[in-house]
Amino acid sequence: MTTLALGPSWLDPDFLIQNFGLLGVMTIVFAESGLLIGFFLPGDSLLFTTGLLVVTDKLHHPLWLVCTLIVAAAIIGDQVGYLFGRKVGPALFRRPDSRLFKQENVEKAHEFFEKHGPKSLILARFVPIIRTFTPIIAGVSRMNYRSFITFNVIGGALWGAGVTLLGAALGQVDFVHQHIEMILVAIVLLSVIPIVIEYLRARRQSRKAEPTAPQEPGESQTASQRGRHAKR
């Protein structure tokens, strides 16, 4: 269906679905929702493509079943991430960087969680990378388990079923079929807009917080002397 791979060919949504089917989709959703190594996986574009392939009969499963299993995988993934965070705790913030782990991602998720509180579990679902680390941060922060379950279920349903149903709805539009590559790129770009906005906002705040250089005593004395001379 697509010729443009959003990264390596094995990360192309159509390639993944055609080769691994619904089980592969569930595995990727599970991994991206709560495993440290899942942050680079194509969540939004994968769900959109899944819904599109269902309505075009290229993925032979009922749409309700596909949505149910995807939501379940998303909820369970976050659950695993939360339990991992509770067990690992502060050690996560001391873990050194590697090819698949960047301390910067943990810090961004922590700032996101601190800013939005429990509702971050819903909002983070729609932000790549952040959605992988937020349930882990919730576990590290020892968020109330009942509250976590509530927001986890709501977020998993809105994201998992919502994006899949969007793909199914738009999959019946001819324009989408004719420009599927452009649509997938647009989805990826839209999903990273919150990250860009947050980055620019943090950069602006850090510039404002930079202390002004202290004035040299000689300079201060000279300025005061100039003031006295001006009054005379």
Supply the key terms.
disordered N terminus, mainly alpha, 10 helices, 232 residues, globular
How many β-strands, per DSSP?
Answer: 0
Return the domain count.
1
Give me the strand/helix succession: HHHHHHHHHH
Low-pLDDT residue intervals, each spanning 5 or more residues: 1-7, 218-223
Strand content: under 5%
Distance between the termini: 84 Å
| Structural Rg | 24 Å
Number of DSSP helical runs: 10
Structural class: mainly alpha
Q: Sheet with the most strands?
A: none
Question: What multimeric state do the chains show?
Answer: single chain
- Helix content estimate: over 70%
Mean pLDDT: 75
Shape: globular
Give structural notes.
With 232 residues, the chain is mainly alpha-helical. It has one domain. 72% of the residues lie in helices and 0% in strands. The chain contains ten helices and no strands. The chain has helices spanning 13-34, 43-55, 63-88, 103-116, 120-123, 130-140, 145-170, 174-178, 180-209, 217-231. Helix 4 crosses helix 6 (130-140). It starts with 12 loop residues before the first helix and ends with a helix. 36% of the residues are buried. The model is unreliable at 1-7 and 218-223 (pLDDT under 50).
Lay out the secondary structure.
Layout: H1 13-34, H2 43-55, H3 63-88, H4 103-116, H5 120-123, H6 130-140, H7 145-170, H8 174-178, H9 180-209, H10 217-231
Briefly say what this structure is.
This protein has helices at 13-34, 43-55, 63-88, 103-116, 120-123, 130-140, 145-170, 174-178, 180-209, 217-231. It is mainly α and 232 residues long. It has one domain (9-231).
